[in-house]
Amino acid sequence: MTEVYRDPHATIDDRVADLLSRMTLEEKVAQLGAIWLTALVQDETFDADHAAEMLADGIGQVTRIGASTGLLANESAQLGNDIQNVLVERTRLGIPTVIHEEGVGGFLHRGATTFPQGLGLAATWNVDLMAEVAEVIRTQMTAVGARHNLSPVLDVARDPRWGRVEETYGESPELCARMGVAYVTGLQTDDLANGVVCTGKHFLGYGYSLGGRNQAPVHLGDRELREVYAEPFAAAIREAGLASIMNSYSSVDGVPVAASRALLTELLRAELGFDGTVVADYFAVMQLHFNHMTAADPTESAIQALSAGLDIELPALDCYKHLPTAVREGRIDESTIDESCARVLAQKFRLGLFENPYVDAESAPNVFDTPDQRALARRAAAEGVILLENDGVLPLDPSISQVAVIGPHADDPRLLQGDYHYPAHLEIIYQNRSAEMLEAMEALGMEQGLDQLPEAGGTFSPGPHFTPHVTPLQGLRAALPSAEVVYVAGCADAGDDVSGIGDAVAAASSADVAIVCVGARSGLVADATVGEARDATHLGLPGVQSQLVAEVAATGTPTVVVVISGRVHTLADEAAAANALLWSILPGEEGGAAIADVLVGTVNPAGRLPVSLPKHVGQIPLHYDMRRRGDRSEFYGSYVDCDSDALYWFGHGLSYTTFEYGEPSVTPGSTTEATTIAVPVSNSGSSDSDEVVQLYATDEVASVARPIRELIGFARVAIPAGQTRTVTFTVHPSRLAFHGLDMALVTEPGTFTFRVGGSPYDSEMRETQVELAGEVAHYDRQTIVATSVEIT
Q1: Contacts for 645 with CB less than 8 Å, ≥ 6 apart
Q2: Residue 219 in 3-state DSSP?
Q3: Which of 91, 195, 197, 182 has the alpha carbon at shortest distance from 150?
Q4: 448: pLDDT confidence band, cut at 50, 70 and 90?
Q5: Which residues, 6 or more positions from 329, have their beta carbon under 8 angstroms from its beta carbon?
Q6: 3 state SS for 394-443
Q7: Above 90 in pLDDT, residue 511?
Q8: Domain end (from 367, 382, 398)
Q9: Separation of alpha carbons 4 and 444, rounded Å
Q10: Predicted confidence band at 526 (pLDDT cuts at 50, 70, 90)?
Q11: Which residues of 281-311 are buried (b: 16+ CB within 10 A; e: fewer)?
């Protein structure tokens, strides 16, 4: 008789209950952890007998099929099949594993398409595009058997000193939510049997740590925590069925999230309605005793984390392996293990792994970096280019004869990548394992895991394997075939060597226009100037790049500054010196072609800022939706040495055409009925373009201090020259809800001001006031209705 858990026609609940009843304590705990893929390799070869010995009790997940090797798609797919075969055929219960990997800006795997980093995708403000990118990532992951993606990053980022801002979707809960929902929908699909589990990270408040320091403590009130930092997670759960959550490394109000039942169970599951699996950020469980010092040893760390609701320890069973002993000693009840194990097993059944544990390895390369995927990468990069300033020098005159392309970012493919792109991420393995890096890892309590990390060298070595990348120099030479394009680096991306600036000045002096490409190097190793664990106090361009810009601009040659960076820089000097200023946020493999498309006008720029750019680091935190009085220093308004305004506010971005907004037409709602705002938007210029139409709301009087204005809806709209589109927003009253004095989520009646336009502080924004009628209405975070948009 076939066991119930093997019967695909039985319900998932019945299959889980049957399987759980057959498992030993050790087998249950094995499902709550992972093993590095490379730990199953002996002498550069997969050893099935060795793997069978290591996996005798099974395993929940396998860590990093792409980012721990340099294998090609067919090779890693076959390796995944070999691992599954051991688990299915040579363990007592035959439970397949879940192989996980990263996917912030593309599948982190050799040969996979390199899309823009997360913040660069957010700069497109295009949810349909995001879903297309996610579909490519899903296709490539499933081709090699990777069914769990440790993305998207749903952190709301409000401190640009933090190096990981580039992985996020920016400072707005609404933009983060919309892009996150689109990403999850594209990867998970409406049936996990065809999709990839997405992990929303990092729950919660990780992007607002003390001093912008990575993993530092977070101090946030319950209201801000829910309305701002939890909202993207809540949206992904209620609208896209987000199947996994990863904890933040930080402590919140003194309690490490990895050990916080209040956050991982009471808030996440009870308030937000999450029913998936919670996975640990790498080494987060052991950090409870090495870093936060809330546990005395690995066993206590495991007890704290599992009791809080953290189901799976990643990247390996460092602490959870002690749980069987803890159960036998009476320190934790086996039912707690059963609860997490049941969630893990249910997800494996939903993924269809018991029926289909293997993939077609030989066909895997067919879906890696195809021409269509590269075209999508180019479109994504181009749609994310933000034109910050332009005095008319752009688009470039097609008759231009000589162009000087200058700067360290002009012809270096590595500098088009973010910290979670392959191979930039893998420098931590192949570039160096320096004493500085090892010391830093040991300080985080990661020394137990150091011997698990793959070493460089041999068949499995990650190495600097790039897909073909197009640099700005290459892109411009292709876009301007009749022009003489001269290249001079001028300086490095860091350091104090100015010896090359003279050559750059000479090249600029004899050119019709100078294109200066500058920025920061993103990565995880010590020479990176932005990225995970690469936080900063100075937000100017690294090294002597600002000097390079200033001296080139001083020649009088029209100067276009292209910032290629994941860092939120203070660019006041560059904006003043340049004739045009663009920001391309780590655009990936087609970044140079996309930048050239914008420079020559093939693409009309329509990227918009997903973050505010401060004038000075001393203004931080500075974001568009400050609560009342947060936008000024009373009573003069400004600082003694600087005004309180941003250099460029969130939502800002210029175009080569002009748009005019008509008067909004409003149908007022109530605290229980929707309000509609319709606005005509005309392209009054001479070139076709997209416009990002943004809707902001202000609650004029409320029982608690509310944001000055909140983004509550947006749409990227294609409008041909001379034509008009009407954009209609339908705002459900739950979208205007907030946590009142008693922390109940309510929408209060009263006056609301709605503003529609191209950025929140644009003087041309159209305003209308609505009197929301009715009584105080109660909602919850599981039933908030997103603003819908119709374009006619």
Answers
A1: 615
A2: coil
A3: 197
A4: very low
A5: none
A6: CCCCCCCCEEEEECCCCCCHHHHCCCCCCCHHHHHHHCCCCHHHHHHHHH
A7: yes
A8: 367
A9: 44
A10: confident
A11: bbbbbbbbbbbbebbeebbbbbbbbbebbbb
Work out the pLDDT band at 453, boundaries 50, 70, 90: low
Give me the pLDDT at residue 42, please: 80
**Which residues, 6 or more positions from 635, have their beta carbon under 8 angstroms from its beta carbon?**
none
Distance CA 596, CA 153 (A): 29
Report d(CA 31, CA 98) in Å as an integer: 10
Whole-number Å distance between alpha carbons of 6 and 8: 6
Distance of CA 9 to the CA centre of its chain: 37
What's 44's domain CATH number?
3.20.20.300
Indicate which CATH number applies to the domain containing 667. Answer: 2.60.40.10
d(C-alpha 566, C-alpha 529), whole Å: 10
The answer as to whether 778 is a domain residue is: yes
pLDDT digits (tens, 9 = 90+) for 248-280: 999 999 999 999 999 999 999 999 999 999 999
Instruction: Look at residue 450 and tell me whether its pLDDT is greater than 60.
Output: no
User: Per DSSP, what are the bridge partners of residue 346?
Assistant: none
Q: Per the domain annotation, does 515 fall within a domain?
A: no
With beta carbons less than 8 A apart as the criterion, state whether 307 and 324 touch: no
Name the active-site residue from 159, 281, 369, 625: 281
SS3 track for 605-673: CCCCCCCCECCCHHHCCCCCCCECCCCCECCCECCCCCCCCCCECCCCCCCCCCEEECCCEEECCECCC
Per the structure block, which two tokens stand in for 193? 């049997």
pLDDT confidence band for 456 (50 / 70 / 90): very low
Whether 264 and 257 have beta carbons less than 8 Å apart is answered as yes
* CA neighbor of 713 nearest in space, from 772, 639, 790: 790
Query: Do the domain assignments include residue 547?
Result: no
d(CA 75, CA 468): 20
The torsion angles phi and psi of 765, rounded to 5 degrees, stand at -60, 145
pLDDT tens for 599-643 read 999 999 999 999 999 999 998 999 999 898 878 778 888 888 888
The average pLDDT across 344-353 equals 98
- Per the CB < 8 A criterion, the answer to whether 286 and 327 are in contact is no
Instruction: State the Cα–Cα distance between residues 360 and 81, nearest whole angstrom.
Output: 9
The verdict on whether 281 is a catalytic residue reads yes
Say how many residues make up the chain: 792
pLDDT above 90 coverage of the chain, percent: 86
Q: What is the DSSP letter of 392?
A: S
The mean per-residue pLDDT over the stretch 204-213 comes to 91
Domains in the chain: how many in total?
Answer: 2
Residue 502, pLDDT > 80, answer: yes
Tokens encoding 190: 């409406």
3-class DSSP string for 259-328: HCHHHHHHHHHHHCCCCCEEECCCCCCCHHHHCCCCCCCHHHHHHHHHHHCCCECCCCCCCHHHHHHHHH
Q: C-alpha angle 428/434/440, rounded to 5°?
A: 80
User: What is the token pair recorded at 585?
Assistant: 């946020």
**CA-wise closest residue to 661 among 788, 771, 770, 759:** 759
Buried b (16+ CB within 10 A) or exposed e, 314-323: bbbbbbbbbb
Name the burial class of residue 712, with classes exposed (0-12), middle (13-18) and buried (19+) by CB atoms within 10 angstroms of its CB: buried
Rounded to an integer, what distance in angstroms lies between the CA atom of residue 61 and that of residue 574? Answer: 48
Q: Which of 63-67, 231-235, 553-557, 658-662 is predicted least confidently?
A: 63-67
Residue 390 lies in a domain: no
Residues in CB range of 612: below 8 A, 6 or more apart: 171, 622, 623, 624, 646, 648, 649, 650
- Domain boundary, last residue among 305, 333, 367: 367
Tokens for 496? 């104090």
pTM: 0.96
- Considering only CA atoms, which of 628, 673, 621, 624 is closest in space to residue 648? 624
Structural domain harbouring 187: 4-367
